[in-house]
């Protein structure tokens, strides 16, 4: 029976998408889950950031990623890099477009897919996901494990990510290798 395309309450539900996390080729990148961005008095407070901690900790501890990378950014309050220079915001690129070496490291260990979560969706998470794609990785952005500085930017950033081939999923769609789905 084909899946219903209408809102027919008697139609069967669509299939549930599950993504298996591989212990040999998958890497988790946790962007900027630090006090400056999570605490209300921090230099760049991301509303809703603290609420992500339990979910990120669960994904980090319960799924068999080959490696996990946690990024950290630091800017004094109202630092000019937010306005004048526009970044850097990616785990893959430092100031002036200099590589951090992360892409080379991930390729050297055989990583093929990168899962991205953390803050802020419209900056570090977005640019990390985009740069991961540019560096040849498949990318899954865990949309329920990120929060934006500017909620109004969410739709535009989402469209750009999808156009670049980034897959947006909820963390509940992830299953450990060898798990029956």
From TrEMBL:
Keyword vocabulary terms for this entry: Hydrolase, Metal-binding, Pyridine nucleotide biosynthesis
EC number: 3.5.1.19
Residue intervals of the Isochorismatase-like domain: 88-170
One example GO MF annotation: metal ion binding
Biological pathway: Cofactor biosynthesis; nicotinate biosynthesis; nicotinate from nicotinamide: step 1/1
Cross-referenced SUPFAM superfamilies: Isochorismatase-like hydrolases (SSF52499)
Enzyme class: hydrolase
Example of a GO biological process term: pyridine nucleotide biosynthetic process
Sequence similarity: Belongs to the isochorismatase family.
Protein name: nicotinamidase
């Amino acid at each position: 029976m084909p899946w219903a395309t209408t809102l027919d309450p008697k139609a069967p539900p669509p299939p549930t998408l599950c993504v298996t996390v591989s212990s040999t080729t998958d890497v988790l990148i946790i962007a900027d889950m630090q006090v400056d961005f999570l605490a209300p008095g921090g230099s760049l407070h991301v509303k809703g950031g603290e609420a992500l901690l339990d979910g990120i900790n669960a994904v980090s501890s319960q799924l068999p990623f080959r490696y996990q990378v946690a990024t950290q950014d630091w800017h004094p309050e109202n630092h000019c890099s937010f306005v004048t220079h526009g970044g850097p915001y990616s785990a893959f690129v430092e100031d002036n477009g200099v590589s951090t070496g992360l892409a080379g490291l991930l390729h050297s260990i055989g990583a093929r897919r990168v899962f991205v979560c953390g803050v802020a969706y419209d900056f570090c998470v977005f640019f990390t996901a985009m740069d991961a794609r540019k560096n040849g990785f498949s990318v899954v952005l865990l949309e329920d494990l990120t929060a934006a500085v500017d909620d109004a930017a969410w739709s535009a950033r989402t469209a750009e990510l999808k156009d670049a081939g980034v897959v947006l999923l909820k963390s509940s769609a992830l299953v450990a290798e060898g798990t029956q789905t």
